[in-house]
Design goal:
Elements: H1 7-23, E1 26-31, H2 63-70, E2 71-76, E3 82-87, E4 113-116, E5 121-128, E6 152-154, E7 159-166, H3 169-175, E8 180-183, H4 192-200, E9 206-213, E10 221-224, E11 227-229, E12 232-234, E13 249-255, E14 262-269, E15 274-277, E16 291-301, E17 307-317, E18 320-331, E19 337-341, E20 349-354, H5 364-368, E21 372-380, E22 391-400, E23 416-418, E24 428-440, E25 445-453
Antiparallel strand pairs: 1-2, 1-22, 2-23, 3-8, 3-21, 4-5, 5-7, 6-7, 9-20, 10-16, 11-12, 12-15, 13-14, 13-16, 14-15, 16-17, 16-19, 17-18, 21-25, 22-24
Length: 454
């Protein structure tokens, strides 16, 4: 038998943990005002720790008792100070980024999204400038993505980006670090751009078709329409004079009247330059106005799943297909294949890349690997009267449902407690972190950020 823990299982646990903050009393404990020194059975394995060589905590039954002995004070963690976080990947010119793939194992370990610090926007990489010929070690990115469009954005370096969300200013101090960024789903009331992306996301959309192998010997033709009928188009004078040259290829109107339409050519007569189509135009192109591109035909198939996706060969270089452009991304695809026909070439292999369930941007947490949770707590001076100053601490813990010493078995509920106000060994210590000494002064503020991985 073999099994894996899926990343969605991890984000599911992270979701439940965040929810539990609102249904339990969770406190940050600080402790240990004396130096790290000597061995400590069941607490750590180091024999000669110090304030510069910090021991590593171990998980034993005796450790919580030692932690409680060192407790100084506790502060309650509130839900607004808890967030899913994702790793921070800053966009940097000259860096190669990985493209999203629907068949990639443990993709959240890759750099397939970036953080643009000027705008605080996060973008997912749909195409890394290679046309899909490689997902890793691709051409470098030299143009920073911008904007908050709900569609795809192509930059001058060939990268294609999808805006996912913007980090809100209110979350910057709480959750942004050199390593982490906050992320949430659904968008809150102030995240209008993210809300628009979530609403526009299309389940099972084919946003991108990867060129795994461009094949050889393919041809294309571009020009201005010389004439058109309901089911014909007359190509430019420079088009091939050989009958059948463009049979089974597709003609796409790139600009002018009828732009965006794509039709398959059934027969082509070289003497008249007339291509007869397998279907009529919705809007007839107009001579000297409409611009066309003839290229090999891309056929998307899915069996019973999904419909509506159409695509075209956009770029051929030296007979090799370099890029496929999706004309209509369709909907509800679960599995799909794509084939290339016509154009005199052979051996091209293209792979439809299906968006995540719900569509790109529908769930930023699961899409970008939000299996991490950050808890932020700020200690300001005495924080009332419970946190001593002119002293230091070296331990940070999370404890769930500690009890109040003067009230029987009542679970703690106040914002802060001194050690003497809490019942020793009560609740469950679920997280422990050992640190170098943090000195507290009457005018100091400690911004404590804990990141928990699920």
């Amino acid at each position: 038998m073999s099994a894996i823990i899926n990343n969605k299982f991890r984000t599911f646990n992270a979701d439940n943990f965040i929810t539990s903050i609102g249904t339990n009393s969770v406190y940050l404990l600080i402790g240990k005002n004396d130096v790290w020194t000597g061995a400590s059975r069941g607490e750590y394995t180091e024999t000669t720790p110090s304030d510069t060589v910090i021991p590593i905590p171990i998980d034993t039954d005796i450790a919580p008792a030692k932690h409680w002995d060192d407790v100084i004070a506790a502060k309650k963690i509130i839900t607004t100070n808890v967030s899913h976080v994702i790793k921070r990947v800053d966009w940097t010119s000259g860096t190669s980024y990985d493209a999203y793939g629907d068949d990639i194992e443990d993709q959240i370990g890759e750099n397939f999204f970036v953080f643009s610090e000027p705008s605080f926007n996060v973008y997912k990489c749909i195409d890394n400038g290679s046309g899909g010929s490689t997902r890793l070690g691709a051409p470098v990115s030299t143009v920073e993505p911008t904007g908050t469009s709900t569609g795809l954005t192509t930059t001058a370096d060939g990268y294609v980006w999808k805006f996912i969300f913007q980090v809100q200013q209110a979350d910057v101090l709480k959750f942004v670090t050199t390593d982490w960024l906050p992320v949430n789903k659904d968008a809150n009331i102030s995240q209008t751009e993210q809300a628009a992306v979530e609403a526009a996301a299309v389940n099972g959309a084919l946003e991108y078709i990867r060129v795994n192998d461009g094949g050889t010997g393919y041809i294309d033709d571009d020009g201005v329409v010389a004439g058109a009928g309901n089911d014909t188009v007359t190509l430019s004078a420079a088009a091939s004079a050989v009958n059948g040259t463009y049979d089974n290829m597709s003609v796409y109107i790139t600009s002018g009247t009828g732009a965006g339409q794509i039709r398959t050519i059934s027969t082509y007569v070289g003497g008249t330059k007339i291509a007869t189509l397998t279907a009529t135009w919705t809007t007839n192109p107009i001579a000297a106005d409409s611009v066309y591109s003839v290229a090999p035909t891309v056929t998307v198939s899915s069996g019973v799943d999904g419909s509506g996706a159409t695509a075209r060969v956009k770029t051929i270089t030296g007979g090799v297909i370099k890029k496929i452009e999706v004309v209509d991304k369709g909907t509800d695809y679960r599995l799909a294949t794509a084939t290339i026909t016509g154009g005199a070439g052979s051996n091209a292999i293209v792979i439809p890349v299906i968006s995540p369930v719900g569509g790109h941007g529908s769930n930023a947490v699961t899409e970008l690997g939000g299996a991490y949770v950050m808890l932020n707590t700020r200690l300001i001076g005495n924080d009332g009267t419970d946190f001593p100053v002119n002293d230091d601490f070296r331990k940070v813990h999370l404890v769930v449902n500690p009890q109040v010493s003067a009230s029987g078995n009542a679970v703690a509920s106040e914002n802060t407690y001194s050690k003497s106000e809490l019942k020793e060994d009560s609740g469950e210590i679920i997280y422990s972190e050992f640190r170098a000494p943090i000195n507290r002064a009457p005018d100091s503020t400690e911004d404590i950020k804990l990141v928990v991985e699920f």
